[in-house]
Specification:
215 residues; alpha/beta; Rossmann fold; Alpha-Beta Plaits; six-stranded mixed β-sheet; four-stranded antiparallel β-sheet; 7 helices; binds ribulose-5-phosphate
Length: 215
């Protein structure tokens, strides 16, 4: 599986143009992209990072990490996913970086998602849906999600996000209307962000393999 992740991550370099500030996601697939980016670091102007984890790896490879506010709109964002449906809607947040990932995806003209073949699903929801919550709202949000969806929210043990918040993972969902569910869950007070990337979904999906498949 990590070979498929490597092939997807390296293929995404095709979308990097000279002088770009590149939006960079989080996770083991993105780590391969960052390593490949390190090999062409002199061609790019820097990166905007979605997590402390990615920031550390980017800096270790000599890539300048820029503040999102200073960088402004980005041309390219490259990130992984936990699940990807045929419409390029995603579940993300397995690595707890969903909020910053969502901000960078929204700020970017093109979102290239890099996955291994196991991430492709007909309907989202087998992977528990991560929801980042303000700590004092954890119990309220869990009750609301249960009532609204029938899914079972589980507090992710000892996970604190880079923003100081907590994660609920919602099990047993079958997400037939990803845009509707994302919109609905976003309305619950205390929800910081929902790991459904449907309103702003991927533009391009690269599935790692020999050769990589571009969807
Ligand atoms: C982190 C994410 C990751 O993109 C997602 O969990 C996939 O990770 P990996 O590439 O390690 O399988 O959303 O919050």
């Amino acid at each position: 599986m990590s070979e498929a992740k490597r092939l997807a991550g390296e293929k995404a370099i095709d979308y990097v143009e000279d002088g770009m500030i590149v939006g960079v996601g989080t996770g083991s697939t993105v780590a391969f992209f960052i390593d490949a980016l390190g090999r062409i670091r002199d061609r790019i102007a820097g990166a905007v990072s979605s997590s402390e984890q990615s920031t550390a790896r980017l800096r270790m490879l000599g890539i300048e990490v820029l503040d999102a506010n200073a960088a402004g709109p980005l041309k390219l964002y490259v990130d992984g996913a936990d699940e990807c449906d045929p419409h390029k809607c995603l579940i993300k947040g397995g690595g707890a970086a969903l909020t910053r990932e969502k901000i960078i995806a929204e700020a970017s003209e093109t979102f290239v998602c890099i996955v291994d073949p196991a991430k492709r699903v007909p309907v989202l929801g087998k992977f528990p849906l991560p929801v980042e919550v303000i700590p004092m709202a954890r119990s309220l949000v869990a009750r609301r999600i249960l009532a609204l969806t029938g899914g079972q929210p589980v507090w992710r043990d000892s996970a604190v996000t880079d923003n100081g918040n907590w994660i609920l993972d919602v099990h047993n969902l079958s997400i037939v209307d990803p845009v509707g569910l994302e919109t609905e869950l976003n309305q619950i007070p205390g929800v910081v962000s929902v790991g459904l990337f449907a309103r702003r979904r991927a533009d391009i999906v690269i599935v790692g393999g020999e050769p990589p498949q571009v969807l």
